[in-house]
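Researcher: We plan to redesign the surface later, but first we want a full-length starting point. Tokens attached.
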């Protein structure tokens, strides 16, 4: 794994204990120890995890190939990008004869499929002024679904908080990928639906929209 340097000022430091992660943060900069699991042991069915990278990534982390190299090429089988226009996945493996590399974008979440378990160090910073285009169904988005990279300093701590921050009338549901079963947990906030779930730094989530919103997350 390449050596990482902090982006942004790192003056007053606090530590937060999270399941499978360790987050050190200051202002809008952070360093996160994020566990990417291989398949097995009942914890991960296929070795697939979601991942949320910061708005301002470390130098040289520009595309799917860079991400695989940074995680460790032998450790990872592929990176998956959700394509809004077709509700399909673009897959990059870095192996001969497979699909083209794709760029990484601020606010966009990804899935990674692992060969081995890796404690991956994510370093960077959030941009508190960045707006993320979450599209309703229509041109450019088949079902109104986006894979959203949850911000590290976002005040919304659970799916309900995220829906409220986006605007409850604007969003239909938040979807969480469950590693153990390769299925989605869905929260709609409507009566009689599933329980709310916590938002975890390092994870990305799918949001399904009713209306198009240029979303600027509330930060602390």
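Model: Full-length starting sequence:
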């Amino acid at each position: 794994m390449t050596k990482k340097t902090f982006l942004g000022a790192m003056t007053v430091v606090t530590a937060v204990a999270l399941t499978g992660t360790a987050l050190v943060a200051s202002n809008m900069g952070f360093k996160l120890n994020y566990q990417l699991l291989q398949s097995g042991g009942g914890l991960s069915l296929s070795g697939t995890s979601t991942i949320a990278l910061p708005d301002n990534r470390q130098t040289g982390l520009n595309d799917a190939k860079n991400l695989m190299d940074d995680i460790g090429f032998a450790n990872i089988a592929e990176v998956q990008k959700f394509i809004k226009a077709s509700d399909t996945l673009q897959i990059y493996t870095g192996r001969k004869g497979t699909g083209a590399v794709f760029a990484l974008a601020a606010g966009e979440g990804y899935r990674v499929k692992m060969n081995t378990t890796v404690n991956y160090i994510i370093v960077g910073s959030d941009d508190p002024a960045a707006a993320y285009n979450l599209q309703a169904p229509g041109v450019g988005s088949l079902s109104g679904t986006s894979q959203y990279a949850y911000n590290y300093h976002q005040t919304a701590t659970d799916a309900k908080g995220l829906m409220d921050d986006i605007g409850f009338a604007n969003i239909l549901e938040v979807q969480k990928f469950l590693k153990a079963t390769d299925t989605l947990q869905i929260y709609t906030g409507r009566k009689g639906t599933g329980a709310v779930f916590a938002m975890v730094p390092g994870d990305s989530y799918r949001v399904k929209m009713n209306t198009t919103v240029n979303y600027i997350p509330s930060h602390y």
